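Revision sheet: structure tokens.
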Amino acid sequence: MARLAKVSVGTVDRALNGRSGINQETRERILAIAAENGYAPNPTAQALSFSKSAFRIGVCIPREIHYFYDFLNEGVINEAKRYEHVGLEIVYRRVKQLSSPVSRAVNELLNQNVQALVLTPGSAEEVAPIIEKAEREKNVRVVCVATDDSPSCRSTGISVDPNINGALAAELMARVVPARSEVAIVTGMLITEEHRKKVEAFQKKFPIECPGGKTVKLIEGHEEEEEVYRKTLQLLREYPKLKGIYISTVNSIPVCKAVEKCKRSDRIKIIATDVFPDQEPYFRRRTLCASIYQDPYRQGQLAVRLLMDSFLNGTALPTNYYINPVIALRTNLGLFREMRGIPALLPSELANAPGSSPRVVQRFDAWSGEVSPHPEPRSK
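Predicted:
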């Protein structure tokens, strides 16, 4: 390539990899020669080159609520192993919870000379200037996972579309409660973009799907289990005719405990978010009606995969990468990654469920995040 273009090898490298230090006319001439000669990067050579100087991705995500973030972190770790041969290193600066300040942790990561950041923005007010600094001043690509700061200049966001998520919960709620029902929402923090958009979508969709239905109460629990439990008890005292509760975050256990303590689980339909082992008893006792699965493992996996595809192959990062939400019910609960090892419901349990239909075996596709029905195999 250098001989054809009559330039140095370093100049060709700068042109092909979009680096500075080369004028535009020379860059275009080299790219044209590359196209004419069918040039493609050699993955083996790239791997040898990258292994000499580690590629670094900084990760700043919460520890709590661990039901969600442990699986997100596992997705990051396992995907990173696929790129060890090119010298990928993950540098962690985790914070306590979504509401925790992240400025110090992110600045420490930037001082570690990372090329990309994976963040879970809690407060857009705090995170926006940090993203601006990383992207504009440090040329560090920022990927938001689980929640977003879409007005910022971050490179991409990976999540379930919160508008679809909230609307899906509203439509599902309208199918399990009668007309003119009073329902409530339990969320984390309205300053968090994902939480706010889910709430807004639910409030807009529910009265359309449920004639005469209305949202009578919105609770911010700040991802604190004790706070959510206390506020749910107060909710149940204030609204004796309450028919449903939508929990827009992973923090569903304290709500279930409060509803069972007040002996209202037979009268209130609860739709939760995400799937984890501690939910199983509440599904079995029918305290939980359904949960909307957001696949945190895949979100972590995709954050690393999209970044490495961008850096190694020049693939453009999408503005948003939305994962399809999946409805988890008692029937398919044991098929989710997070529920491995949890015993499946017995046929008699399913057959005795009110309004049960003929059994269908469902298969969970770990890559697509979708559950699809298949006929049950005939017994031998």
